[in-house]
Specification:
Rossmann fold, 7-stranded parallel beta sheet, transferase, hexosyltransferase activity
């Protein structure tokens, strides 16, 4: 049978949450039915290319140095769709979404858009273009109820908008204590130390300067606590300046941008997030899958994932200073820490597995391609 050809369009393939989902979902998709292509535009942000290709995806870069040049690639993308007989386009994040809507208006190839962020947090120009173009696509997906409600409130769309919660590959993301100990040794962290960590992009909404301030408060009372922040981003200089100001250079480690984060998750006892806003962070779900106890603000979709005192400990966004108290509760009570580690994995497996997400996504793809659905089901049957 001829496979259904899906094209993902995304601005870059660095190690952000949306980008990370592409290779992880590919590992689970029914590749006897679907064939996946990916187009991106920032050649210097290509960390996930190998992972996508290794999982069976086809990747193409149409180089564009800015958003205007990205939009000017539409004729190349249309030509790609014709040459490769693309059946459906799935866009991620605003500028890829704008491009997908332009292609939809010219070709009528079904287009799905996944929104990973709250509308209120976008630049006013992005918000206006989103409002103006939003109905030029088949369907929109929000990664959390918060994100979906934000679309409905700010865009007032005429097209269907559904919530499809993000997921983590709970089979792949499993804690490996041996790997964790090895990584501790490589970083110079004592084997018996308690590790608090984060895996993130260094942007203002992640509040990593505040994260370091919270860590300093914890470390002052607990000398055997160490920190790891995996990632990179535009605020790296300011964050590392704060690290020096707080004299934490020998206590908090920055391994940089990593495509494989499992060794670092395996070292972490507590995964701490200080975000001011979020969609539904993939790194949070991965940390839960790897049995890290969660201490976080209740930003965005985090409160849909973490039930306070049941799956982790959370506080209000504006009360981020309380994160140190919440961590201290777990430092003082190893049994509670261990229970929350296990509870985090249980929650991820039961409610946020990538398999559930992929099954739902395939059903959505097929619902927009009724003719191809009947053909493929006929063959399957």
């Amino acid at each position: 049978m001829q496979k259904i050809k899906i094209l993902h369009i995304i601005k870059s393939l660095g190690r952000g949450g949306a980008e990370m989902l592409l290779p992880e979902t590919l590992k689970i998709h029914d590749t006897s039915r679907f064939e996946f292509h990916t187009i991106y535009f920032l050649p210097w942000k290509n960390q996930m290319v190998d992972s996508i290709e290794n999982a069976g995806g086809k990747v193409t870069c149409f180089s564009a140095s800015n958003n205007i040049k990205l939009m000017q690639q539409y004729s190349k993308v249309i030509e790609y769709c014709k040459t490769n007989e693309i059946d459906l386009i799935h866009c991620h994040l605003p500028w890829a979404g704008f491009l997908g809507r332009l292609i939809f208006s010219k070709t009528k190839i079904p287009v799905i858009y996944t929104e990973h962020n709250m509308q209120e947090r976008y630049h006013i120009a992005t918000k206006k273009i989103n409002q103006f173009t939003f109905n030029s696509q088949s369907l929109a997906l929000g990664v959390s109820e918060d994100v979906t409600n934000s679309i409905k409130k700010n865009v007032n769309p005429r097209i269907p908008v559904k919530t499809l919660l993000n997921g983590a590959n709970t089979n792949s993301f499993r804690r490996d204590p041996e790997l964790g100990n090895k990584t501790k040794k490589e970083l110079g962290i004592p084997g018996n130390a308690l590790v608090i960590g984060n895996v993130t992009v260094f942007r203002f909404q992640k509040r990593l300067i505040e994260w370091l301030q919270v860590f300093k408060d914890i470390e002052t009372k607990n000398p055997n606590v160490y920190g790891i922040i995996v990632g990179a981003g535009p605020l790296e200089e300011e964050i590392k300046a704060e690290l020096q100001k707080l004299k934490l250079e020998k206590k908090v480690f920055f391994p940089g941008l990593k495509t494989d984060v499992k060794p670092y998750f395996s070292t972490m006892d507590i995964f701490m997030m200080s975000s001011s806003f979020e969609g539904l962070p993939i790194a949070l779900l991965e940390a839960m899958s790897m049995e890290c106890a969660i201490v976080s603000t209740n930003a965005g979709g985090i409160k849909e994932v973490i039930r306070d005192k049941q799956d982790g400990l959370i506080c209000k966004v504006e009360e981020w200073k309380k994160l140190s108290e919440l961590c201290q509760v777990l430092i003082d009570d190893p049994k509670k820490l261990n229970n929350l580690k296990k509870a985090a994995r249980e929650r991820a497996v039961n409610s946020f597995s990538l398999k559930r997400m992929v099954d739902s996504l395939e059903e959505i793809y097929l619902s927009l391609l009724p003719n191809l659905r009947s053909e493929s089901e006929g063959v399957k049957g």
